[in-house]
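hey so i finally got around to running the thing on that chain from the lab meeting. sorry it took forever, my laptop kept dying and i had to restart like 3 times. anyway pasting the input first so we r on the same page abt which one it is
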Amino acid sequence: MPRFSIIVPSHGVAGRLSQALDSVLAQSFGDIELIPVCDAPDAPAADVAAWYAERDSRVAPVHSPPSAGLAGARNAGMRAATGAFLLFLDGDDTLAPGALTALDARLAETGDVDVLYVEHERVPWWDGEPTNPAELLLPKTPAGPFALDQVPQLTGVQLPAWSAVYRKAFLAAHQLAFPDGHFTDVGFGGLVALRAEKAAVLRQVVVRHLARRQGNRLSLPGAHHLELLDQTDLVLTRAAELGLHDERLVPLFDHLFAAVLKTAAHPRRLRTGRRAFFRRASTLYRRHRPAGFHTPGGSLGVQHRLLARGSYAAFRALRGANQSAARALEVLPRPRGLRTRLRYRRALRRPLDPNLAVYCAYWGRGYACSPAAIHAKARELAPHIRAVFLVEPDQAHTVPKDIEYAVIGTAKYWDVLARAKYLVNNANFADAVVKRPGSVHLSTQHGTPLKKMGVDQATYPVVAAATGSFTKLLARVDRWDYNLTSNAHSTQMWERAFPAAHETLEYGYPRNDVYYTATADDVARIRRELGIPEGKTAVLYAPTHRDYHTGFETGLDLEAFCAEAGEDVVVLLRAHYFYDKGAANSTGRIIDVTAHRSSEDVCLAADALITDYSSIMFDYANLDRPVVVYADDWDVYRETRGVYFDLMEHPPGPVARTPGELARIFRDGSWAGPESAAARAEFRERFCGFDDGRAAERVVRRVLLGEPPESIPPVLPLAERVPAPAATLVRSR
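ok and heres what got predicted. didnt touch it at all, straight out
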């Protein structure tokens, strides 16, 4: 029997789960079992947990469906636990260094108490000093073990479940489990304190709780706040059944109704149903109020008296007066220019158009990427929805003739942004765009992250300086309702890079659908359009942008490469879109495709890809064609830009560090050999998880047509997908 079982629910925190698990496994005290609780075997967090379980026998994942909530996940972990003591850890929290050693030492001093209360740190998600709420919530207690009758202020309902360690035999003897619903910590903490015969306190931080940027789920608005009353009733009813005397009942009642009144008075937590909440709270107040309870003074005492009398009208008036005194004026984001600003404000007062969708790609560079793919599918599945593409003035001529567009900055641009119900972008809309209630914002992203993104860039000075205000970035992210991912890695990294309350859709990238729907005739047509000589091996060279360079540098003498690689090789040069000047500079066997409107077409035309660290490798891998990594400055790039994983350890194919090595790889055929195919297969398994040719359909059905998740077509297994054929390459299978 291990000394400690650490139970870690992981719903919605796959991106940070590894930090939590690492903090446990790195403890010097090793007599443990670690139980990650995942939604399902195929959930993003399950992959993380499985990786740890393969490497450490102490890790034993279990599953609990999301519908069971946090309570169900913790209870599933409790049922599986075999340790003498249980410790609960949220999936994005960490154990402080030395925590388990300190717990073991304290339990050796106190004996096997039923519950050991501990301190915890609340760590701000961005910056600021950590705080220790438990230091204030834990009253003065005896040095050794004590009965809770000796410390009546220690009611358990103010502390989170991870601010204590519980003896498993004690929980089992009293059949204690987390009650269903929200605010389960309130119910569990209260029930534990009511039953515990012996307790002790460790005055040391054990858990470091990461405060999420999007806030605690319990502080968000919604009908779930009614469940606080369920937990209050549960704990006070059990206290009455146990005949709890007033000395302990009074502080318990006080702590519970302090939380109830805080919710009743909060301006945002209950946007509807406030009267029903108040009336039920009033009923519970009168039913459970101890005879020895004395109403506090001041404004809080007024609230108690109004709740006791059920005077909702007076309570609402008091709440309104307090809000008016504290309310600051909200400033509406606004576009530049008085006339435009006034027009936009007027448009914002008009109703949303339920059949209007606005699309934008790469900050207005034209009809491209996933927004274009979604739009095309919407014309088929949702023809009633009017679509408008946003483009910069110099890109208007590139929009297909049958596509309606609005030039960025014009009156039409602001009008459609104000009225559209659906807003789809692969980057972000302007800061001045207002997220209206009822509108639906979809971020499609435009790649799989190798390099650090979003707030993860903050510790890389060169990148952070170019990014600008992270506050403004996060304000843009807060407008998202949905965010697309193409693989489990992206799901986890986007969660870290863009912390907000949007829903992740693991549907694949719509722009990649064509890699499974294009035919051999399509490939031949595109190659003719690009001017690729028949029978030649077309190698796409697509380097990424480097933040430490001021302009585009190929990093390769491409003519020399062609001469050394073989007579049948031609190079398709595609610079990063930052360097698209709208004109091609083709010479000899080098075909410049930087200005070509569709990166997907270019990939379909290519028999192989050479890239450095560009995210194009993740998309191209769907074609199951050779990829060669040219990494002449990997160490500099990694240190300057920051990366999420070591590409050199997990490349999609051969890696070259010098021009000579690169030419040799093509000259000797290893670019398309069995080792290359094996590396590519592993890479595809990891990064082509959700792209199967039907991503756009899934998005249209879920986002534009509002179909329920269970009706959305499932992702086809990787082994059953057939990518578009290459022109000259016979694919290894």
